[in-house]
Amino acid sequence: MRFLFKTDYEDDIRLFPHSGHFVSYGILLAFLVVAPFVLSSYLVSQLVFVCIYATVGVGLMILSGFTGQASLGHAAFLAIGAYTAGYLQQYDVPFLVYFLAAGLLTGTIGALVGFPALRLQGIYLVIATISFAFIVEEVLARWESVTHGNEGMRVKTLSMFGFTVPRDGPTFYFLCLGVLILAIIGTLNLLRSPTGRAFLAIRDSETAARSMGVNVSLYKVKSFAISAAITGFAGVLFAHKLSFISPEMFTLLLSIEFIIVILIGGTFSLHGAVLGAIFLVMIDPFLTYLKDDLPGIIAGVAAAFGAGSATVAKIQSNVAAVASANGLKGAIYGVIIVLFVLFEPLGLYGRWLKIKLFFQLFPLYKRATFKRQKIYVKSERNR
Amino acid sequence: MLDFVQQLVSGIALGCVYGLIALGFVLVYKATEVVNFAQGDLMMLGGFFAFTFIGILGLNYWLGFAAAVIAMAGFGMLAERAVVRPILGYPQFSIIMATIGLGYFLRSIVGMIWGTDDFKIETPFSDGVLRIGALVLAHDKLSVIAATIILCALLYLFFNRTTLGTAMRASSENMLAAYYMGIPVKRVVSIVWAISAAVATAAGVLLAPITFIHSNVGLVLGLKAFPAAVLGGFGSIPGAVVGGVLIGVIESMAGFYLPQGWKDVAPYIVLLVVLLLKPEGLFGVHMRKKV
Amino acid sequence: MSYFRADNLSLHFGGLKAVDSVSFAVEKGEILSIIGPNGAGKSSIFNLISRIYPPTSGRIFFEDQDITQQPAYDIAKLGIARTFQNIELFENSSVLSNLLVGRHRHSTTQLWQEFLFLPSVRASEKVHRRRVEQVIEFLDLEAYRDKLISGLPYGVRKVIELARALCSEPKLILLDEPSSGLNVEETTDMSFWIRDMKTELGITVLMVEHDMSLVNRVSDRVIALNYGRVIAMGTPSEVQRHPDVVAAYLGA
Known about the structure:
heterotrimer; A: mainly alpha; ABC transporter involved in vitamin B12 uptake, BtuC; two-stranded antiparallel sheet; 16 helices; 4 strands; 72% helix; disordered C terminus; C: 10 helices; 10 strands
């Protein structure tokens, strides 16, 4: 186990509490830098999606994880960011300008959504954000002069300072990675300053926060605005990555995916946003793999256990039928969400912390360390 | 004027379906403080059960209806046992996510078993019409309204006149206290899920003559029923039905009188406005923490 | 003019008069205790002062300023801090970040500065931290600095709540039953701290308390309430001898 001896207030402020972090994050960064040159172009493209989803995850984490305001409407913010990029780009607005404009616009709209949300709690807030997302979706479909309605909109290849940045090249990947890293560092900076602490205070007890001088309404609006702005930035990248956007891409199901990102990652730490994004994006290639290779593998196992060749063929075709069934992805999503909520409420990052603790305390680790307490009487109806 | 009444009746009929799904939301919420996002999907599954019993196995409509309701009540209990009971008492948001997961699962399983086509259940109300002067009212719509009224009356009697109903109300007020008073809270919760799945099935079967049944119908209608429940003030049973009817009427009026596109958004706009003015819904009670 | 003054303060819930035209004044630098049986309206008065409820009628003055209509968060900015009867800490944060929230009313940094964590933010963080460290030393909380609140025993949480209030460097502190749930030893500590707050830090204390021995030890003056009305006011011994107070407690 590592003991930290703190001799300066700086020790509690710095982002990397001890030198070990430099090594581990350095290795990670080195990997991410060489990734586009060693991985297949498909995987790099998936990594770009990981970055975009993780950026949205960071935004959503600020609102839901840290300020405690649930939102099922973040697809709408992503859409607004994407459409801002698509629209402004037609008029040859430079990338940096429309990138910032998208963030500004979504941030403003986020703040506007935040105002009515001030008086809403829990489930009422969830439904209000869903309603907002529906309205945005409908506006995108009907406001044809700007959005081209349901036909969708082409997004041209990104160009910056006279260079074109193709959506599947390494430069675009580095751009997405850079945005994600900036979002993470900015959020971490907030968390170690008064605003971030006010967010956490609002999450845990609004009454106490207010009695300590936190203007709860103002900070909720700030949280909405920041969260929306970060999602809007991600939206610009999303539009460029897909090169085509249409209203039906930004449905409730996408908002739910974002929630899954932070839920599966772990809602209490920014690590969760990244881990969750990796999980959600990589599940697709995994399912493809499942579809192609699993029947053969299972048949092979069956053969190894001495099944007859007719049985093996039958097993193989049955498994193949199940694996390629239409709704399989949905079913697996469903099962994964349920299993995570039931068995790993702290998400992937929580599991990682548990594994770390297990080795730190070995052989003294006990299961009860992470046993959750049930609080039957704690009603969320009274706030 | 005639158009208006025509639209009003079909709005109310649609609203009753929303109301019934919303009723399921509210029942579960009242008893366990769980918001069941899979409620619409339970309705969809109930519709498919009924379709199987009536359309495929060829049972009599009423017999098939009853069989579907009973089967779904069982399924509701099963779902509660498997997904909700282990996490009862945890933060609301985790439970919402679990039910969203359940919804995903049900939709895709139904799609795998029954396919993703549209299905229609033949009902005794499918064609007939009632004429009052120049007014033509389809039987299918009237049957939905009548059934909703009957169901609400039954639920009202159940909650206010029976011991089990009282036990449910008690455990919704304070689960721990109810437990200490000897109420088998777990069984009560399980029965609540059974009832809410049964009500959802009734909604699904009643809906059948109005629209087709397909694997996503629950998602679509659930998302309409949800504002209905919130509009009425989550936790209020009459509120759910009133909210449902309101949403249904708003939707059909907007579809008739306003340009295309408003139909789907109008209920949400109204909902947002109501929440702005009255954050706890129309019939909700505002509660606050004591410090 | 008094330092802090409540004028005909009333709070009605429907027909129930939780607080019924209560008037009292607190002088600068004194410790004033409010006693009374359960449901007498003691905590309600605190909730009125910290604006959790708006008063039905009446006015509240602090440093000659009418604060009756100020929003809740401004009360803290004026220098009135409070603790809660049933502990309202930020459960999922460390002790340190709880205490730093107490510094919120002194924070001057802007959002964009914090986002970039400019040197000015870093410097002000260190100032906050130094103040927090002083409070930690004052209340002997060194051992708990990095612990999560959710894992701490009740007695410690009670002290941390007091610490959070002190971190805001209040002029007036409202203590809602500081000794409830504490054992004898912890109560004794609490009485010393309350005394020290007055003498060393110069804070005026308004406190609701049931434990009469604590009230006797620390209070300069006592107000007794029953059914939302003031029934006695004076030194601790005067109030305890007052026939109405005896009747209220013993149910004559």
